[in-house]
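Appendix B. Raw example, untouched.
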Amino acid sequence: MDLPDTIDACTRLLAPRVAGTSVTLESNIQADFPRIIADQTRLKQIIINLLSNGVKFTEQGSVTVEAEFDTETGIVIRVRDTGIGIAEEDIEHAFSMFGQVDSALSRKFEGTGLGLPLSRSMAHLHGGDLVLQSELGKDTCAIITLPAERIIHP
């Protein structure tokens, strides 16, 4: 599959959601990105889930998807947002099925709490992982890693 084309399709899909808001969608993809071996539908779902979360939790600022590769270490896809962030102690809870960080009584954001756990499971099925780095009140960076064996060498 062509990862840059897939990322472009994901950002185009989310563009109407940010139209007329104070949020920008951006992408930054390493030049000459090789084709990779992956389930395009599943990888697209992971990226859409992460971009959707970024847009949902960012009132103003940016949501950026980045992709880079190294033939020895593998593929890294980052989805960064300048949103509300997550406290470090709540990150693992966000990965639990139906786990949502805000309390049910004060829920401001809609969702089932399945996006992150399903995305992590799909990353695992690709031999990779999905982790979050975040600071409450600042930002969040979701990092998808895929092994180097997924890179198709020309």
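End of appendix B.
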